Amino acid sequence: MNNSSFFTADRNTHLKIVVVSLLASILVIVIGIAARPVANDTVATVYKPPKAVIATTGEAKSVR
To answer: Is residue 13 part of a domain?
Structure first.
């Protein structure tokens, strides 16, 4: 059997590829769920940015 190419692989090789990709995707999902931060029941910290600053130059712009 010629299993060196995806197009010439037999049915068992395709099944192995599907199973391995399914297991890998489940592993990524489990790691992603486990890595999220734990929610605390305390009051959330709210970030308020400072007032906006407008930067201008003293020169008047001329339209040409």
So the answer is: yes
